[in-house]
Amino acid sequence: MASETRRTHHQVTFAVLAAGVTAYALLQSLVTPVLPTIQADLHTNQNTVTWVLTAYLLSASIFTPIMGRIGDMIGKERVFVATLGALAAGSLLAALATNVTTMIVARAIQGIGGGVLPLAFGIIRDEFPREKLSGAVGLIASILAVGGGLGIVLAGPIVNALDYHWLFWLPMILTLVSAIAAHFFVPKSPVRTAGRISWAPAVLLSAWLVALLVALSQAPVWGWGSGKVLGLIAAAVVLAVAWVLVELRAATPLIDMKMMARPAVWTNNLVALLVGVGMYAVFAFLPEFVQTPKSTGYGFGASITQSGLILLPMSVMMFIVGLGANGLANRIGGKKVVVTGSLIGAVSMALLAFAHTSTWELYVATAVMGAGFGLTFAAMSSLIVSAVPPAQTGVASGMNANIRTIGGSIGAALMASVVTASPAADGLPREAGYTHGFAMLGAAMVLAAVAATLIPVVRRSTRVEFVDGPQQAELAAVPGGTVVGDKPE
């Protein structure tokens, strides 16, 4: 009876879930503007410090589906608490880190926190009244978007008032409070799914991603034609093929490759991969660029707060444009919206590459970038949902978000490789490194637009609505939880 009584208080459940998602969202973005500070404090270089972001993205891309699957099997609320515990443990280790290796390990542990997203959506689906589902999902998605934007802005004031270690202490406190509250107030899962975790695919996924990322990030040091780099790339290819084959043969695959082979699914996932390459690399390297000393001839000597404010227009525009993407998609079709958004993203990268002599140019570039990403993310979510049966929408859309994270880890490693390829005498990157890097990201966005033209035309309902609850974990990355549909083109 106590459990049933607790189930009626879905607003309390929502408050607990929102607190956990907020902690995760903050940890995604708080660190971004302070990478140069961490680099200096831990006595490392720009190439290595990029792994503070890359390790987090890599870990999240692997653990998000794993934690979601475990939650379905043994109870979402139990795994939600455990996931928050891992997030807190990683934050504690990061706060105490005295060298870059420990910091990278801590960030990898924090990446386990990516599981809060599918678990939160699953708990909402289980616990909320049918008429409240869509609104609750939209609010959680908004919290993720707004929390990410706030993290970028809050990093500077927190570091100025305290120091960068508090960027981990404060989220850790919030995470622990959320975990305790979840233990006492989130009801036990009424729905369990039989099965087991296929660990071989998880290991192979980790192995080929690590091999590829190490090769990309170390290529400037070892040489692109060196045996180490070529060997790691070859190993990545072999391991990736083995991963696909094992997934196809697994009784309970981590990722359903047959579903992933659907034309509308793999094309949207290819777009997601390329967009992720651009977005996360900008998160990592634009603060580095503007914080570069003025003595270099191209840097702005910006503070952490100033560099965070330069990225703020992107979050704001993603939110605003995401809210209006529905109407545009209904008029011209979701496929065209993805193409348009990708091309707008390419324009923003070109602005960063060739028009970066004044800060107002950077504000314009990031605002344009937010508009492009907002359109692309919103439209992709609906196209994925339209492409698969209702029972597979959660897996398909969640994997689309996951592939974007994988793209982000690849993009960050590639950008580090290009930017640090020919350092100046003082050890800082040359302006040409950033110009070439942002131009490369622009090329990735153009390729995303080309890939989007391959998305099959959907000739059915003009709008996607929730039917059996918030099945698309992809909403976690869509500003404002916008869901858009498609129409005949």
UniProtKB/TrEMBL annotation:
SUPFAM superfamilies, A to Z: MFS general substrate transporter
Species this protein is from: Actinacidiphila cocklensis
One Pfam family of this chain: MFS_1
Its membrane topology: Multi-pass membrane protein
InterPro entries for the chain: MFS (IPR011701), MFS_dom (IPR020846), MFS_trans_sf (IPR036259)
Main subcellular localisation: membrane
Keyword Transmembrane set for record: yes
Protein name as annotated: Drug resistance transporter, EmrB/QacA subfamily
GO cellular component, one term: plasma membrane
Transmembrane feature ranges: 12-36, 48-67, 79-98, 104-124, 136-160, 166-186, 198-217, 229-246, 266-286, 298-325, 337-356, 362-385, 406-425, 437-458
Places the protein is found: Cell membrane
